[in-house]
Amino acid sequence: MNRMRLFHDHYRAVTVVGNGAYGQIRLVQPIGKPVTELLAMKQINPKKDGDSRPYQLPIPFIRELLVLHQARHPCLVRLEEVVIINDPPRSAEDFGFVMERASMDAATFAGGGVDVNELKRVALDCLSGLAHLHGLGIVHRDVKPANMLIGTDGRCKLCDYGLARFVTPHDANNMSPNVCTLTTRAPEVLVTEEDGGTISYGLPADLWSLGMSLLVMVVPAIVDQIRSVEGTYQFLHDTIGPIEGCPGMMESPPYKRGWRPGPRVHPPLRELLASAMEEEGEVSPVAGVEGLLRGMLRYTPGDRLTAAELLEHGFFKEDPPAVDTLVY
Ligand SMILES: Nc1ncnc2c1ncn2[C@@H]1O[C@H](COP(=O)(O)OP(=O)(O)O)[C@@H](O)[C@H]1O
Ligand SMILES: [Mg+2]
Prior knowledge:
Blueprint: E1 5-6, H1 7-10, E2 11-19, E3 23-30, E4 39-44, H2 59-70, E5 79-84, E6 95-100, E7 102-105, H3 106-109, H4 116-135, E8 138-139, E9 148-151, E10 156-158, E11 165-166, E12 172-175, H5 187-190, E13 199-201, H6 204-218, H7 222-225, H8 229-239, H9 253-256, H10 269-276, H11 286-296, H12 307-311
Parallel strand pairs: 1-5
Antiparallel strand pairs: 2-3, 3-4, 4-6, 5-6, 7-9, 8-11, 9-10, 12-13
Helix pairs in contact: 4-6, 6-11, 10-11
Bound molecules: adenosine-5'-diphosphate and magnesium ion.
Adenosine-5'-diphosphate binds near residues 17, 20, 25, 147 and 149.
């Protein structure tokens, strides 16, 4: 096995572009290469005061490396190498990994919304990435715009595998709840919120999260409207369909506490999309986008289309075509 290379012998750190749960992301320049060949590095954060396990690598870091090592695809961020910051490494923060650099994440890209051509590119790329990941039996568990990168090749790529897990094709038991941001969290995860126990879910959770991510990219204001689990239920009830149709809802903690959906606050999905999408030529893109999202945003996990099925969706065959590249 090759020895891990010492970071400072081969790279120069440039700017910090992201600060996350366990690590910091910075752009790095390979020594002797032009700035056009910048890469990115995720380095474990220094341990917090009182942490008495200096040598223990964070589990998300190990998970992330396992997935990156195995899952190679143009729509999944590419791992270059694992590096050490000090030789010999003395603590967890002496480890990092170098990966391809992206221009920005999809949350930044979609700051003011996206048009149908861009949405098509993002959806196609993320579905291709997910189909590959799911084919390997890996569920991402944190699909959201901040974890979808716009690569320098103009493609959208999934990143951040800190929560990823290996599962059986449709379900996995003993998964911890509370994963994923509220807006993009699958209903089967949401209904167990606060239970503290473990739940059963699998690959379809990623399709829900992708559906919500795409919706949020078209209508960014949604993020500010969803602030609590109950707020999410109300949004889903109004926009997707009666929340009573969601398995496990009656047993969910808010329902047991007496929460019930109130009068309509949010518009139905079709109206919400129409309010944000411009008509292009004679054909409205709204029906096509709604059709695609409806394939993902189904309350019962088993009813959701798979990533491979969604890649064949009619939406991708109709005009307008996906943009060739998301960056120019
Ligand atoms: N390869 C990369 N190139 C450019 N920016 C990146 C890259 N990887 C991550 N980022 C930025 O850093 C943020 C945090 O990275 P991420 O891997 O999602 O870590 P965390 O687990 O802390 O969320 C991302 O949302 C994105 O904005
Ligand atoms: Mg992230």
